[in-house]
Design a protein that fits this description.
The protein has 378 residues and is mostly helical. It contains 13 helices and no strands. Helix 2 packs parallel to helix 10 (246-264) and helix 3 runs parallel beside helix 11. The protein is globular and about 55 Å long. GO terms for molecular function: acyltransferase activity, transferring groups other than amino-acyl groups; hydrolase activity.
């Protein structure tokens, strides 16, 4: 399947949904100091899976013949349309929470607001998290989008085995080198405000490598491969619940993504695709809104109900259900309409600027290719 015919991997979308809930529970457990630290102790590493998935899906879906400033501009507009509206909404929600005194822990100044507004908060410009703290990873994503042409150029110039060596070297240097960049003992895998965009870089490039390997996987595209992928992802969830082993997690995430994509590609339509796709659609809103809802609703509810730490499991399950419903409605009534509006505006602008061009058929073909890209990425 060519990049211009890109499909949506609904099982990978479901993984993103599970991972978003995992990050939420990772933060939810902090509402009571009595809750066992063993409760999904390392699910914060799911953020690194997000970076791998982004690199995989975006590079797989990107038109192979897209070149030049116009193609890059269109790519960036569509990526900004994907991430920015909900980021802006969550930022404004935190302004309100701080204004009414519900959020007292964040160090959020007018300068922090500017950094967050411009999505620069993970670029080493500050020494603390602020406002909607999970949005640091969206800042890191933006960095990867900006350097995406360079990463794709590298991927096209070298053999996959060489690219694999480069990815491994990046992980080795950034995650295990004694670099003064990171503020926490966990080094790169604990980075967020402290150059978190560099934490995203090896995983995003890893995703590009996986997309290349996927394109080479035609002889292995059998339906039974999906079971290997799902099993590997399940193993990663279990491992993260017990061990804080980032390197093992990255390896399991990578294998799960590749095996799942290979297996799912053998299906014309994967069973339950509509439900899996709908759950996948909620993942971004779950990730971006969970901290605000935790502060405004779930934490006060925990205190008001007088729950004990041993009741956390059922409470977390109920919170996941409520958060998923809220995210589903947010996607339907805000996130997706806002994205479509921006993309439509960009399409109108591109059509207007190319109205006098003598190359209308090529422009039309490019529009179709980018439309396919948008569907696959989302």
């Amino acid at each position: 399947m060519e990049a211009s015919e890109a499909r949506r991997f609904v099982v990978l979308d479901f993984y993103r949904f599970v991972a978003a809930l995992g990050v939420f529970i990772f933060h939810l457990k902090l509402i009571d100091t009595g809750i066992s630290p063993a409760w999904n102790g390392s699910y914060g590493l799911f953020v690194d899976m997000f970076f791998i998935l982004s690199g995989f899906v975006i590079s797989y879906s990107y038109p192979s013949d897209a070149r030049g400033v116009a193609a890059y501009s269109r790519f960036m507009i569509r990526r900004i349309a994907r991430i920015y509206p909900l980021h802006l909404l969550s930022l404004l929600i935190f302004v309100v929470l701080i204004g009414v005194g519900l959020e007292r822990t964040a160090r959020s100044t007018p300068l922090d607001f500017l950094y967050n507004l411009l999505l620069l908060q993970a670029w080493g410009v500050t020494d603390h998290l602020s406002f909607n703290s999970p949005s640091w990873s969206i800042s890191a994503e933006l960095f990867c989008y900006l350097v995406f042409p360079l990463l794709m150029l590298l991927a096209r110039k070298v053999q996959p085995i060489v690219l694999g060596a480069i990815v491994a070297a990046l992980y080795l240097v950034l995650a295990h080198g004694h670099l003064p960049l990171w503020q926490e003992r966990s080094q790169m895998y604990g980075a967020n405000f402290d150059y978190g965009m560099l934490r995203a870089l090896p995983s995003f490039l890893n995703g590009i490598l996986l997309a290349i390997l996927f394109r080479m996987s035609h002889p292995y595209r059998h339906k039974r491969m999906i079971f290997a992928g799902i099993g590997t992802f399940g193993l990663s969830v279990l491992v993260l619940n017990v061990f804080a082993k980032p390197d093992l997690a990255i390896l399991l995430f990578s294998c799960a993504i590749l095996l799942t994509a290979v297996g799912e590609s053998a299906f014309k339509e994967f069973p339950g695709a509509r439900l899996l796709g709908r759950l996948g659609n909620t993942s971004y809103a779950i990730y971006m809104l969970h901290d605000a809802i935790l502060i405004a609703v779930f934490k006060p509810l925990w205190i008001w109900l007088g729950l004990r730490p041993d009741q956390f499991g059922l409470f977390a399950l109920a919170c996941c259900a409520v958060l998923t419903i809220a995210a589903d409605r947010t996607y339907a009534y805000f996130e997706n309409p806002a994205r479509r509006f921006i993309n439509r505006w960009a399409d109108i602008g591109a059509t207007s600027s190319g109205a006098t061009s003598s190359r209308k058929p090529a422009a039309a073909d490019s529009s179709v290719r980018f439309e396919n890209t948008e569907r696959a990425v989302n």
